[in-house]
Design brief:
Layout lengths: L3 E6 L20 H10 L16 H6 L1 H4 L11 E5 L8 H8 L20 H11 L5 E5 L2 H15 L3 E4 L4 E7 H20 L6 E8 L7 E2 L4 E4 L7 H7 L4 E4 L2 H4 L7 E3 L4 H14 L5 E6 L1 H7 L4 H19 L7 E5 L18 E6 L6 E6 L3 H10 L13
Parallel strand pairs: 1-11, 1-12, 2-14, 3-4, 5-6, 9-10, 9-11
Antiparallel strand pairs: 2-13, 4-5, 6-7, 6-8, 12-13
Helix pairs in contact: 1-12, 5-7, 10-12, 11-12
Bound molecules: 1-O-phosphono-alpha-D-ribofuranose and manganese (II) ion (MN) (2 copies).
Length: about 400
């Protein structure tokens, strides 16, 4: 029997989706724009990286062909693209669809007003958590709102609540002054109060530092997601007696359902180490599911082209370490959950197609074209693991 390793490069889109205009994202292309910027010398940063994007292993697998950028040497991997049928371009929607469960209902969103949160919601959270009040209460980039409101938050003891184009309520507070456990408890209170508004996630955003110039977010972020609306690939694997190892924030994204074990790491390179450890220990028929969050949260949302390029290069350099750990019959798939084009206006996700790159000792290199739903990825993994097929998507194997 074989193992499956599913890896999400968070936000690594490869070009705007057919319905991108509905999201205001026509023309977005995370990979294409980073690649073009690097080629033009616009992704150089002293001490970090320079010149054209160097990602030979991803290219060898067929990334350029998947993105429609090249028809050069025949790719060495199974390669293609996938489009999303879920209605949101958020992380849970993308991951759940990859795991065979598209999100066909509408999430709740907070309006682009200031304040953006319903006053009854704020009052309920303030009362139950015993807070002196809240700060923020608007659409914002997480790092910018901590710079703008962090000092006041420290002075007043008020946490910073904000949202984005996603169905999300984020709560930033100082990790030691406000307290990490207190922040988590506050998020659990908020989670209950936003259920009625159909909000996908509440996210704890602890930070450290003393002044606007020194504030930095820590690795203790925690997501409180609603559970997926149907059994996912993870539930199906677990029910069949397989081990499901979640690397990074996969556990949080699936509301800890369908998971045998969680492995964490602070930063993509630590996550890569955690992934390798999980692969080493996975047995026949098991699933390892990893998310690499820094592409999105450290570079994509921050519109940091050079940083995103360097992160891709660092990830690419480590792919051989994964390849040598794969055994006969194993399938590894690299994909993404949405785009976050660092050259695009704003700081939100972008509606894009995602790459699907499959490899392993017995995986025949071939094109799988453009799949009509991310669910084809989960169904292919299910087929590979010998699990019964689910109600959405079709295997490309
Ligand atoms: O700007 P920050 O706080 O990184 O927020 C980003 O991260 C959130 C969750 O991934 C998204 O909703 C997006 O807005
Ligand atoms: Mn994401
Ligand atoms: Mn994001």
């Amino acid at each position: 029997m074989a193992r499956a390793i599913l890896i999400v490069l968070d936000s690594f889109g490869i070009g705007h989706a057919p319905d991108a205009a509905d999201f205001g994202d026509s023309g977005a292309d995370t990979f294409g724009h980073i690649r073009a910027a690097a080629l033009a010398g616009r992704a150089d940063r002293a001490g970090l990286r320079k010149g054209p994007l160097a990602i030979p292993h991803l290219e060898r697998l067929g990334l350029l062909a998947a993105a429609g950028l090249d028809d050069g040497p025949a790719p060495a991997g199974l390669h293609g693209a996938a489009e999303e049928i879920s209605r949101g371009k958020d992380t849970p929607s993308g991951h759940w669809e990859i795991a065979g469960v598209p999100v066909r209902f509408d999430w709740g969103y907070f309006p682009h007003t200031v304040p953006c949160l319903p006053s009854a919601l704020v009052a309920a959270i303030v009362r139950e958590a015993g807070l002196p009040g809240i700060l923020g209460d608007r659409h914002a980039s997480g790092t910018e709102i901590i710079a703008a409101e962090g000092e006041r938050s420290l002075r007043t003891g008020m946490p910073i609540l904000y949202t984005s184009a996603d169905s999300v309520l984020q709560i930033a507070a100082h990790e030691t002054a406000f307290g990490l456990d207190r922040l988590y408890a506050l998020c659990e209170i908020a989670r209950r109060h936003v259920d009625a508004l159909n909000i996908g996630r509440v996210i704890a955003r602890p930070f450290l530092g003393e002044t606007a110039a020194t504030f930095r977010r820590t690795g203790n972020r925690r997501d409180y997601a609603v559970p997926p609306p149907e059994p996912t690939l993870l539930d199906r694997a677990l029910a069949a007696g397989r081990r499901v190892t979640a690397v990074g924030k996969i556990g949080d994204i699936f509301a800890h359902r369908g998971i045998s074990e969680v492995r964490k790491g602070n930063g993509n390179m630590a996550l890569f180490d955690a992934l390798l450890g999980a692969v080493d220990e996975a047995g026949d028929g098991d699933l390892v599911f990893a998310n690499f969050v820094d592409f999105d949260s450290v570079h994509g949302h921050r519109r940091d082209v050079a940083g995103y390029a360097a992160e891709l290069e660092a990830f690419d350099r480590r792919l051989p370490e994964l390849a040598v750990r794969l055994r006969d019959g194993d399938l590894a798939i690299l994909t993404a959950d949405h785009g976050c084009d660092p050259t695009f206006p704003g700081t939100d996700h972008t509606r894009e197609r995602v790459p699907v790159l499959g490899f392993g000792p017995g995986i025949r290199p071939r094109s799988i074209g453009t799949r009509p739903t991310f669910a084809d990825i989960g169904e292919s993994v299910a087929a590979h693991l010998g699990l019964p097929h689910g109600p959405h998507g079709a295997s490309f194997l």
